[in-house]
């Protein structure tokens, strides 16, 4: 269902014989059956305004006349959630994240953290508060302990050019957050099916990039490789090797010893891992990255950011 105002409402029903797209102009007193596609009847609808909207009917379809006609957009795929900031620029998710700048005719995939201990359930919903900041929901990470999984939240502050993820307090045993609402960039809620979390500060202070296991062989030692490229601007890759299952932290510090980022903080099995560090908000200079094994300092290396 999509409620535009107290009078104008659309709802969709995927049932093949009696479903389709329905609209009311008088708060639900009367309903118009606008479209029926049989087995392709949509399960989701999004309306940007009284004229422009989208449904997922086998493939993406768009209306520019309030639902009287719906035009297929070939190759655009379906959606679970959608939001447009204006008539041209918008995002949609269908386990992945995509962005359009031409009103939905073409969609570009965005890279959301994945791999490593992230289970790969994908993005099932998201929340825009402005042109830049988006929170996304639906994914789970393995961190060990009992239970071994926790829900995570994704966030971008630059329209999806870079996505990070946040692990709420590990004492909160919520496996997944399929529902959420933010009223601004700092105040919001995220819920599982029985309980949830609330923040007034934008959540935790530490954000993570994605970590991918690149090889499953068992190294002889714990090794932290030199980042590449180095010097870098603004992105560099850090590879490390683990000889056994262990609690791992990979942290970034400035020249004064202040932590500026945490790339990894979880339990990982033996193997070779790759982590990407983005330094868009940091100044040029010397930084250090440290691999912690079971909360003990193991290896520190230097890298140089040149902007």
The outline comes out as: elongated
> What is the CATH architecture descriptor of the largest domain?
Sandwich
The portion of residues assigned to helices is under 10%
What is the typical, i.e. mean, pLDDT? 89
Strand residues, percent: over 45%
CATH class of the largest domain: Mainly Beta
Gap from first CA to last CA: 47 Å
Please tally the β strands and state the result.
27
The biggest beta sheet is recorded as: 4 strands, antiparallel
Please list the strands of the largest sheet in the order they lie side by side: 1-2-3-4
Tell me the CATH topology of the largest domain: Immunoglobulin-like
- What is the structural class? mainly beta
The oligomerization state is: single chain
How many structural domains are formed by the residues? Answer: 3
Q: Spans of 5+ residues with little confidence (pLDDT < 50)? A: none
Instruction: Give the helix tally.
Output: 0
- Radius of gyration (CA) equals 22 Å
The CATH superfamily of the largest domain appears as: Macroglobulin (MG2) domain
Q: Give the H and E element order.
A: EEEEEEEEEEEEEEEEEEEEEEEEEEE
Layout of helices and strands:
Blueprint: E1 2-3, E2 9-13, E3 20-24, E4 32-35, E5 45-47, E6 53-57, E7 59-63, E8 71-72, E9 81-84, E10 90-93, E11 97-100, E12 108-110, E13 125-128, E14 134-142, E15 149-156, E16 164-166, E17 179-182, E18 188-191, E19 196-199, E20 211-215, E21 223-224, E22 235-242, E23 246-254, E24 259-268, E25 271-278, E26 285-293, E27 296-305
Antiparallel strand pairs: 1-2, 2-3, 3-4, 5-6, 6-7, 7-8, 9-10, 10-11, 11-12, 13-14, 14-15, 15-16, 17-18, 18-19, 20-25, 21-22, 22-25, 23-24, 23-26, 26-27
């Amino acid at each position: 269902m999509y409620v535009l105002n107290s009078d104008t409402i659309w709802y969709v029903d995927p049932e093949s014989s009696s479903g389709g797209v329905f609209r009311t102009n008088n708060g639900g007193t009367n309903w118009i059956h606008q479209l029926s596609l049989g087995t392709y009847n949509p399960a989701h609808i999004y309306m940007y305004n009284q004229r422009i909207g989208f449904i997922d009917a086998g493939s993406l379809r768009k209306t520019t006349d309030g639902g009287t006609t719906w035009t297929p957009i070939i190759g655009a795929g379906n959606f679970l959630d959608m939001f447009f900031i204006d008539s041209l620029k918008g995002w949609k998710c269908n386990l992945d994240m995509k962005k359009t700048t031409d009103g939905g005719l073409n969609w570009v995939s965005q890279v959301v953290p994945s791999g490593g201990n992230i289970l790969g359930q994908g993005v099932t919903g998201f929340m825009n508060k402005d042109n830049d900041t988006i929170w996304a929901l639906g994914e789970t990470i393995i961190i060990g302990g009992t239970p071994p999984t926790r829900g995570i939240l994704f966030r971008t502050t630059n329209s999806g050019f870079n996505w990070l993820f946040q692990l709420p307090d590990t004492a909160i045993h919520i496996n997944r957050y399929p529902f959420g609402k933010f009223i601004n960039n700092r105040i919001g809620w995220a819920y599982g099916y029985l309980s949830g979390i609330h923040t007034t500060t934008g959540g935790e202070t530490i954000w993570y990039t994605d970590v991918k296991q690149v090889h499953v062989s068992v190294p002889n030692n714990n090794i932290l490789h030199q980042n590449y490229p180095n010097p870098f601007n603004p992105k560099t890759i850090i590879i490390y090797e683990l000889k056994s299952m262990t609690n791992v932290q990979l942290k970034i510090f400035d020249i004064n010893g202040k932590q500026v980022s945490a790339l990894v903080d979880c339990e990982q099995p033996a193997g070779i891992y790759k982590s990407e560090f983005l330094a868009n908000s940091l100044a040029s200079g010397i930084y250090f990255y440290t691999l912690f094994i079971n909360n003990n300092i193991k290896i520190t290396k230097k890298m140089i950011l040149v902007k």
